[in-house]
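Sequence in, structure out.
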Amino acid sequence: MNEQIANGAGQLRDIKPLLEIPDSSFYLYWGLIGFGLFLAAGILFFVLKKILENRKVNLAKKYLSALKAIDWIDSKRSAYEATHYARLLATDTRRKELFSQLEVMLERYKYKKNVDTVDQETRNQFNLFVQVADESI
């Protein structure tokens, strides 16, 4: 019987050892997770960018409606409000130029204790600024 075992063991010597198969599933797994996180971060970035762009447009509309709602009976308060909201709306070159002209005209009504009513030239310049701001928004 020992001979049969010895013959059997001799036949088993022809069996080759196990081959190591390269396995890259670990790297594929983490690569897919990394790609998914990168993709999610990109989508989140563009969504937040779009939301902030829409918010800016809404703020501009809010400032424009505040400009249109200014009551010119109290000249001093109106001049301060007009300057504040017009400064916020003056973002491009045309509006900045009009604002610089309007600001000089509104200075007369700001720093004094008693001021006159707003003259027609200043009101026309203000209305021009509001019209240009309304067209660009």
